[in-house]
Amino acid sequence: MKELGFNHSFLENINKGVKISENMKQKYNILILVIIFFSCFTVKNVYSSSNPSDHTGDTIWKIEVGTQAPDFSITDVDSKITYKLSDFTGKPVMLDFFATWCTYCVQALPHLVDIYEIFGDDIQIISIDVDEDETDSQISSFRKAHDMDWIVGSDKENIGDAYGVSGIPHFVIIDQDQIVSYQLIGFAEEYGPIIKDEIYKLLPDTVAPTITDFQYTIVGDNLSIYSPEVRVFANITEDREVYSTKLILSGDSDTEVSYSLNPKRDGDFFIINETVSVDVAFLYPQDEIGAKLIVSDFKGNEDISSVLTIPITHYDDTSIPEIVKIDVEVSEVSDKFQIDVGVVIQEDLFLVSANATLLKNYERWYPKPLMQVNSTSWKTSFTLSKTMAHLCELNLTIELMDVASNIVHETLPVPTDLDPSGCEVDEPTEPTEGTDTTEPTKTPISMFIVFITLFSLASIYYIFNKK
Ligand SMILES: [Ca+2]
Ligand SMILES: [Ca+2]
Question: HEC string of 304-369?
Answer without folding.
Answer: ECCCEEEEECCCCCCCCCEEEEEEEEEEEECCEEEEEEEEEEECCCCEEEEEEEEEECCEEEEEEE
